[in-house]
Structure formats: structure tokens, C-alpha cells
Design goal:
With 327 residues, the chain is α+β, with helices and mostly antiparallel strands. Among the domains are: 128-185, GTP cyclohydrolase I, N-terminal domain (GTP Cyclohydrolase I, Chain A, domain 1, Orthogonal Bundle); 196-324, GTP cyclohydrolase I, C-terminal domain/NADPH-dependent 7-cyano-7-deazaguanine reductase, N-terminal domain (GTP Cyclohydrolase I, domain 2, 2-Layer Sandwich), CATH 3.30.1130. Helix content is 38%, strand content 17%. The chain is built from 13 helices and eleven strands. The protein has helices spanning 13-16, 27-45, 66-71, 101-105, 129-133, 137-157, 170-181, 189-193, 241-252, 258-273, 287-290, 309-312, 314-325; strands at 73-74, 77-78, 82-83, 86-87, 197-199, 206-217, 223-233, 237-239, 255-256, 277-286, 301-308. Strands 9-6-7-10-11 form a five-stranded mixed sheet, with helices on both faces. A two-stranded antiparallel ribbon has the order 1-2. The protein has a two-stranded antiparallel sheet with strand order 3-4. A hairpin with a 2-residue loop joins β1 (73-74) and β2 (77-78). The longest helix has 21 residues, at 137-157. Keywords: Allosteric enzyme, Folate biosynthesis, GTP-binding, Hydrolase, Nucleotide-binding.
């Protein structure tokens, strides 16, 4: 009697055999395995990171050691540098970077999880930022007078009479207003956080949404306004909720582009709290599109920055996006 024709099984035997087979795992075991893999991935990605110590003897960014410098060479060839125990995947080092016009005129804007955070300074400062923050009263008065003179020149150049009644005090008023619009240059993360980081056994999403932001486009010096939504998954460290709004305010009160603003807030939180994940979404309207150029009054711009679990786990990212869109 002929044997029945061989029919290969839909599922290979090496998958269904054994207690460790994925198909034999129940839901609880699968969830536990997923959590273990996730925690291992987080720990690997955070390799070399350190808890923030604002008052440590060596500061937040100690100098690279000689041994670290030696490790940068393998077989006589340079490899990626190690900064603060982390591998600089871009090969970027502030001390050795070429002084190009770009690097001297604006801050380095990282796109990896190795940000340039200076807690003792001003966090991505521009040239002259520290001078403004540490200025004496006489220097502040001199700066205000210089700015007022520049505004008077602008009024003359557009065809106005700065001496007429309506514009007589406008240079001084606008100079003071512009200094307020950019007051973020006089703030830093150390002063804003002010020790409001607490240990708490919480590992679910924390979201503060609809934070109003007002900033100036660095390309045209006209406003862009909107809302910022911030979420993070704590890793036994939480921050005072009002500090999230203040961090958003600090970075927005500078000459900005929306993409960099979004990234700065996310990376600052990532460095301070070292959470399991961070997400920042910004929705804003740009007056450089509304009042000039294409003049599209209804156009809005949305940018996002996701780090950690927010970036690697689709379900977590989707939960955050659903929560911020809930009315």
C-alpha cells in the first residue's frame, strides 16, 4: 500500500519542540521575556552614563583621562572617542572640533543620545551668552543703549521718523521687550531644576501637555507660537512637574528653530533623569510663513523627538501620542 504523500508542516518542528518554544509560552512568560529584553536594551544603551551630580568635585563633565585617550587608538589608528564613559559615535569632541564658521556661530546640535549638556553653564550656549548672563549693571545699561540705537536705525531705514511722538520711546521699549523675548539666554538647567529631582517608585508614563511656548525664529526674528507636550517614563527618578514647563520656557526664549527646540528639551530631560524613555512633541504656527513668504495662515508645524523606550517600543510611543491627542 502506498504511503500518503509527504506534506511539510506549516510550522517547523524546531519551533514547536521544547518548553522554550515561542509557541509554548503563555502570555505572562512572553511579557516577562519582553520586559527582560527591554531592560537589557535600556541598560546597554545607558552604558557609561552617570547620575547627575551638580556639586561633584569634578563637575558634570570631567576631563578625559590618559587611559581613555590611549583607548582611542587601536593598532595606531584612531577610533571613536570616549566622552564621560560613552562612545562618541559621531567622533565629535568639543575640544578637538575644527573651528569652522558654523561651529563658532551656533551651538552643536546633536542628533544622537550623546548631547552637549552643560549644567554649570547655559546648555547649548551661543557666542556671547555667558557674557550676557554675567554682565554687571553698567554693562547691562550699555547693552540696552546699544540695542536701542540699533532699533532707532531700523526705524530710520524703513522710512519712519523716530523723533515723532508715537515712536519717540519705541527704541527703548522694543529693546527691553527683545531682551525679555530672549531671557532664556540668562537661565541654565541648574538654576531651573534647583534640586527638584526626587526618587519615586513609578515606571509608567508621566505627561505634561499643552505647555504654551513663544519663541523667535532665528531666520527672520519673527515669532512662532504653539504648544509643547512632554512625556517620560521614570527610572526611579521624577522631576517636579512645573520644572518641565520651565525647561520648555528656557529653551523657547532664545532664537530658535522648532526642530532644535524639540530636541533640546528631550535631551536635557534624558540627561537629567536618565529615564526609560522621553518624548517631546511641539505644534506651532510660524509667523515667517503667515506674515511673509507663502502667507499660509492655517499652516502648523509639528516636530517630535523620541528617546529610549519611546523610540524603540511602538506600543509605548502610540500610548503617548494617543494620550496627548485626547481632548
Amino acid at each position: 500500500m502506498d504511503s500518503p504523500p509527504f506534506r511539510p508542516k506549516a510550522i517547523p518542528s524546531h519551533i514547536t519542540n521544547g518548553p522554550s518554544s515561542p509557541l509554548r509560552l503563555n502570555q505572562e512568560d512572553r511579557d516577562r521575556k519582553e520586559r527582560d529584553n527591554l531592560y537589557a536594551a535600556i541598560e546597554t544603551s545607558n552604558r557609561g552614563r552617570q547620575i547627575v551630580d551638580f556639586d561633584g568635585p569634578n563637575g558634570y563633565f570631567p576631563k578625559s583621562s590618559t587611559s581613555a585617550d590611549m583607548d582611542n587608538k587601536v593598532g595606531g589608528k584612531d577610533v571613536h572617542g570616549i566622552i564621560n564613559g560613552e562612545i562618541d559615535v559621531e567622533g565629535y569632541n568639543q575640544d578637538t572640533a575644527a573651528k569652522t564658521p558654523l561651529s563658532t556661530s551656533r551651538a552643536h546640535s546633536p542628533y544622537t543620545q550623546h548631547p552637549t549638556i552643560d549644567f554649570d553653564g547655559l546648555s547649548w550656549p551661543s557666542k556671547g551668552t555667558r557674557a550676557r548672563k554675567e554682565a554687571t549693571s553698567e554693562e547691562k545699561d550699555e547693552r540696552l543703549a546699544k540695542l536701542s540705537g540699533a532699533v532707532r536705525t531700523i526705524l530710520e531705514c524703513i522710512g519712519e521718523d523716530p523723533d515723532r511722538e508715537g515712536l519717540r520711546d519705541t527704541p527703548d521699549r522694543y529693546a527691553k521687550a527683545l531682551l525679555f523675548f530672549t531671557k532664556g539666554y540668562e537661565e541654565n538647567l541648574r538654576e531651573i531644576v534647583n534640586g527638584a529631582v526626587f526618587h519615586e517608585d513609578h515606571d509608567e508614563l508621566v505627561i505634561v501637555k499643552d505647555i504654551e511656548i513663544y519663541s523667535l525664529c532665528e531666520h527672520h526674528l519673527v515669532p512662532f507660537t504653539g504648544k509643547m507636550h512632554i512625556g517620560y517614563i521614570p527610572n526611579r527618578r521624577v522631576i517636579g512637574l512645573s520644572k518641565l514647563a520651565r525647561i520648555a520656557e528656557m529653551f523657547s526664549r532664545r532664537l530658535q528653530v522648532q526642530e532644535r527646540l524639540t530636541k533640546q528639551v528631550a535631551l536635557a530631560l534624558s540627561e537629567m533623569l536618565q529615564p526609560q524613555g522621553v518624548a517631546v512633541v511641539v505644534e506651532s504656527s510660524h509667523f515667517c510663513m503667515v506674515m511673509r513668504g507663502v502667507q499660509k495662515t492655517g499652516a502648523t508645524t509639528t516636530t517630535s523627538c523620541m528617546l529610549g523606550r519611546m523610540r524603540s517600543t511602538a506600543r509605548t510611543r502610540e500610548e503617548f501620542l494617543n494620550l496627548i491627542n485626547r481632548k
